[in-house]
Write a structure and sequence with these properties.
The protein is mainly alpha-helical. The chain has helices spanning about 5-15, 20-30, 35-45, 50-65, 70-80, 85-95, 100-115. It is built from seven helices and no strands. Helix 4 packs antiparallel against helix 5 and helix 4 (about 50-65) crosses helix 6. The longest helix has 19 residues, at about 50-65. It is elongated, with a radius of gyration of 17 Å. The model has no long low-confidence stretch (mean pLDDT about 95).
């Protein structure tokens, strides 16, 4: 993987709350915006902004399954300011709403625990 894209991916993951523009990302790795867009898509299959959204949604899914944080707090933690957008993106990516995912995940854990106790 191109070292510039690797560095951007690492930076995105380390600070999900930061809202970088594509211009800011391009500046950090010292390339033009259009070149960054092409290079990032070639390396990851998606644009930098969509990649960042994907990282945020994956982290949100982890938090929904492993914490008792309210959905609004999870939005904040992963850097998505608007909960309605969060709900929409989450459902597009995972096929269920965040609250439904949490419920299904909890049911799965309870079933696994019941099976282990048999």
């Amino acid at each position: 993987m191109d070292r510039r894209i690797f560095a951007l991916r690492k930076q995105m993951l380390s600070n999900l709350q930061h809202q970088p523009s594509v211009e800011e990302m391009a500046e950090k790795v010292e390339v033009t915006t259009s070149y960054l867009q092409r290079l990032f898509k070639a390396e990851t299959g998606m644009s930098p902004i969509n990649y960042l959204r994907d990282l945020r949604l994956e982290k949100a899914r982890e938090l929904l399954g492993n914490t008792f944080l309210r959905i609004q707090q999870i939005c904040y933690e992963v850097g998505i300011k608007d909960q309605s957008h969060f709900d929409k993106y989450f459902k597009e990516k995972f096929g269920v709403s965040p609250s439904e995912y949490r419920r299904q995940h909890q049911e799965k854990l309870e079933a696994e625990e019941a099976d282990a106790n048999k």
